[in-house]
Every structure is written in C-alpha cells, then in structure tokens.
Amino acid sequence: MNRTLAALILLLASALLLVAQSGVAQPLEGRPLQIPASLCEPSGATPTRVELFIPLGMDSLDATYYVPPFPPPDSAGYPAILFVHGFGGDKNWDTASAAIWAGEGYVSLCYSVRAHGNSSGTSSIMGQSERADLARVVEFLQKLPEVNPDRVGMQGGSQGGLHSLWAVTDSLPVKAVAADVITPRWASDMFVNGAVRHTVTFLLRTPSVRYGADRDTLWELLRTDAYDLLRERFTEGRDLDTARLHASRIPLATFMKWQDHYFNAQDGIASYLRQHPPRKMYLGTGGHFSDVIYDELLYQWGVIDRWLDHFVLDDSNGVLEEPPVTYAASSLPVDGDGYFSWTRRELDSWPPPEMNTARFYFHGDSLLLFHPPVAGDDSVTVRNDWNGLYTFDEGFIEGFKGPRFESALPKDVVAFETPPLISDMHWVGPPGLGLYLRSAFEKFPLHAQVFEVDTLERKYLINRVNFVGRDWQPGASGEVELQGIAHAHTFTRGNRIRVELTNIDDENRVGWGKTPFVLPLFHPSGATLYLDSARASYVEFPVAGQVPLLVPIASFDAEYDGESRSVRISWKTHREINIAGYYLEWRADPVEKFEVLGFVPPASGPTSHLPQHYLFWDTTYPGGPRWYRLRQVDLDGDAYRSEPVYLDVTLDVAVRTIPLLFRLEQNYPNPFNPVTRIGFTLPERSRVLIRVFDILGREVATLLDGDLEPGSHFLDWDAGAYAGGVYYCRLSAGGHTGLRKMILLK
Known about the structure:
This protein is α+β, with helices and mostly antiparallel strands. Helix content is about 20%, strand content about 40%. The N and C termini lie far apart (about 75 Å).
C-alpha cells in the first residue's frame, strides 16, 4: 500500500504541472495539494540515494536512483523500475515514489527529461530526441551493477506515459510497462475536426522547458491559424507507429481518462483492442483537467503495482485473473469541488454488452426529440462576432477568458433540451453529431457542449463535440458528420439532456473557471443550422443497455364544455414506440382508486416517430370534483401514468381547474403585433421565472420573477420595442420548465 500512496502523490503532484505549463492560466489556484509528510519517505530502513548525470554525447540527463536497504534476492541483482515524469516537470516529481519502491526491493531510477530540470539539451516536444534518450536510459539502468538486467519495468504518465509506449513500440528490454494518461496518436488528437486543443499552447510555451528553434515555427503557425501546416508539422514524428506498437509482445497496461484536455480516450481504446495479450485497460478519471477522485486514483495505482510486480518479480498476485477492462462512469450528484460521482465497472471485453444508439434531433422549438422535425423551414445561427482588434497574443496572455476577451469575442449559444428521461441512460463512448449547415464564411467554429440538467435547473457539463469548418465555400450548404470526445456518464431519470451549440467551448466546472477546451477562432464568422425534415440535424450517444424513453406525454389536459355538457380530454405525445394504447382513468375522491373510463388505440399504429394529438370526450361527467389520469401501455406490458388533472364544475360553470402538473400555454394571439397574452398554470405555490429569448438564445426580457399561488395565471407582453421575428418564452417554476415559440410580426 505504501507504493500505491506514493504513486498517488506522484499523480496529484503531476496535476500541479498544469499551473506551470499554462504560464498564465491557473486551473488549480486556491486548491493546494496536501501531502502528508509520512507518505514522502519510505517505511523501515532508508534506501541508498545516488545522484548522477547520464551522458548522452554532448548532452546529459540529471538522474537519481535508489538502492534497497537489504541484499538483492539473488546473485543476478535487484529488479528495477524506471519512472518518467510529465511535461514541464523534472525528476523531483518522482523521487518520493522511487524511494518507496526501493524500500519494496526495486532499484528505482528517475531522471529529468532533456531540457527539463538540470538536464541539458533542447526539447523536441515529446518527440524523437526524447525517444532516443529513453533507449540510452534503459541501457544505463540495465548496466548498473546492482540491477538484474532481465527484470526491468517502467511506468509514467502523460509525457512519461508516452515514454512507456515508446518502450513497447521500440521493443526495449523491459518486462512490463504501465502507460498512464496518454494515447498512441496523441499529437493528432490535438487537431480533431478542424479545431485545435487549447493545451497545445501549454506544450509550446511552458516556462520550465527549454525549446529549440522548431518551437518558434510551430508557435507562429498556431497564432496565425495556419491549421493544415501546423497539424502536419506538429504530428510528424510524434504519433506512434501503431503497427509496431501492436506487434510488440511486451505486457502493457494503459490508463485513459474521459475528461482529459490533451488525449482522447477513444484513440487509446482502439489501440487496446489491437494489442497482444497480456494487456489491461482502465478508463475513467484522473487526467489533465479531470475530476480528482481518490478512490479511483488508489485503484489505478494498485493495478500498476500488481501489474509490474507480476511480470518483473514473477509475483502470482492474481492481476491476470481479473477482468482485463475497467471503466468508471460519472453521474450526479457532484461534490463540493464540482466533481461527479464515479462508479467503477469491470468487463471481460470492450465495448460493454448490449450497446445501442440514442439519436436526438434538433427542433426549432429548442427541443431534442427522437423523431426528425416535421416540414418547415426553421433554422438557428451561431455567430462568432470577433471585434477585429483583440489579438490571439492578448488572448493567450489572458488565458482566453476574462472581461476583455468576452467583450471582444462574445460567446454565442443556441440551446436544445430533451424532455425529462423516464429512466437512466448510460452513455459509453464518443458522441456523434450530424449537422446540415450553411455558412457565408470560409472558416467558422461550431461546437456542441453536452450537459445534464437536473430538476432544479442546474446544468453540468459532461463533454463535447468540437468542429471548426475550414475551406468552406462561402454561401454553400453541406452536411458534416463528427465524432466527439469519448465519455462514460449515466444521465439520471427525471433529468434532461441539454446540448448547447456555441462558438466558444469553455468549461463551467467548479475550480476550472472558463478554461477553453479548444482555441477560439479570431475570425468574424458564423454558421446556420437547418432544422427541417429534409435537412435534419442530430446528436447521438452510444448507450449501454436500452435507450430510455423521454417522458412520452407532451401534454395532458381536461376541460368542461358547456355546450355539449361533456369533458374534453386531450393529450399530445412526442413520439410512440411499441404502444398498445391509452387508458383514460378517473376518480371522484383523492383517496379512491382510479377507474377506467375508456381506451384509445395509437393513432398511427404501435410505433410513430411523429408527434400525435388525441381527443376523448367524457359524456358521463355528472359535475363536481373529478380527477383524470392517462395510462399509456406498451405492447410488452410496461405502463407510464401521467400526473392527474383536477376538474370541478358546478351548475355547468367551470369553477376552478387546477392541473397537478405545471403548464405553459401557447401565447395568444400568435403571430402577434405587438401585444400577446401568455397563460400558465401551477400545481403549487412556486417561485416563477418567465423570460423571453431571441432566436440566437439571448435574453431580451424578464416578464416575471416572483412567487405565485397555485392555479391559472396570465400576463401580457408588449413587444412594441422589439424587432419582428421569432422569440421563445421560457417558464421555470418548481423544478419544471416550459418553452413556447412566439412570432412577432411587424
């Protein structure tokens, strides 16, 4: 356990490198790492520490190694372990762990990578120079008089993890390797779908690293947005030859992180599936800009300990009898630091069983639904309104955030939400995005941020899909299909999925501020997304298990009709899947059981991907109190029950109608000029917020913000001061929301 705790120190300390790497951004500011002093020293006798420089021709590497304080296990010498630190650090990030591993019987060596710490030379930015150095370091470690050259293992994270993958790819003489927070095609991951990861700036401008002239060339290409040439120059010699990697027989344990701002876990998954066994894979948390979950970190480092012990020491510790794949999934609630709850699962293979796809289409009324939009010509536009004055260099200095940046390049958002989910949805893998676009610009940003919205209207960023259109023919329309950042997350029943299309993909998690995931585009531009049946756009998620239904009943209402002396019962559905029909139920007393009033079959057969509208007349109503409820029954016997609505009619006069669910009515008249009436009902006393947004998602008016009693209410909106066009009225009350599209004609 001492080695596991030491490795935890190493990983947490490496996270602090984000502060140093950013130069100006301080993502961990105010959250210092607390390391117990007792964990920084090995237990028992003290290992012997040796300081030296490893010669590399004209250069040398500053190194430290520890020798166990007891005799070797045999005449061949001690087993050995090699540590390699992350980018921007030095050997001192590894010395505590190295000392503790020495206390467990390993000669443990750590060194400062070239151009880091006291090592000489210039950095090739995780490139071929560092790769050649690694072979020399492994050779040096094998030749130490205390070391058994046939029992050498290796571990590292981030830059150190890349060194581990180099050792496997180049078939260096190591028994086993653990590679943390890295993927084989990591350099290409920085340039996905036309976007550039913000973390590229950290790799090119970390103050503690000494660079060669190539860095200045790359930086100039980055700041001038010479995307194609930058991608070509940066990835050359940095991505791994995966054919050689997968042909290697060296046992490899890999650890990828869903939220990592450098490396996409999906690349690591694809590589794992092609590796020779024995192999092991972890997917979860603990990467750059990731949640810090101590149980998960301890688990990962416990696996690393046993993996290396098994192969280097021939320790039959059962690590190979365990399932080879482990992944952790996030879910709500979050803790005080804004970190999700994480649940770990073990698998014999990847992907998880019973994978399906949940596809949601974007609709003009800001909804995400399973069916495509019906005929119409709705569209939304996301703008990138750069003022032309604020520069990339200023943005870099300010971390691409803050009031000056936000004024010069404001964030534009168009949001879409599903209705509440009627069961949990377990997303595992990369999200997909299919867009039908038109743009008047040669290049433009359009990112999709995925949120979960709870019943209190709080939104939590999960992950994203990034896209920057490049070499677009101005004025042209076209379809794009994109893959986003892989993740595992369980959306909770009753919550909603929210997708925000935006020009700026920044964080909203506690502790990370507005750190951008990809670099903003300093170019005035925009793109229009079509939302009609012929040009439907969608977002989709790989789902383990059944795709959950959305709350199937869009609305349910009952009102008395004096002319026919009957109750008019109506309801609407978003879509219908495997539906047997609808039972209308009633009761006259709140303590009685509901009785069946009638049955209505589905309008278009058991399955329909289009909205349906139903009407039923209760001609038996005698007056007085009555509750109505709708029970939807599936062909497999499952049922969904609506919340009841209450009706009380005396002498053919409707005295009071109080739905037990809140409802936002369609404004009337609609279209209107310039005054329209907005009606709504509340089931209980609630805090009510009613706001109006324009088609770009900008708030233009707050019509109500206060407490109201249960019942029916209305208010008038005078839009005389506003331009004609499409507006959206949004009601939030008691953990519920409603949205209505309004058309102002002028």
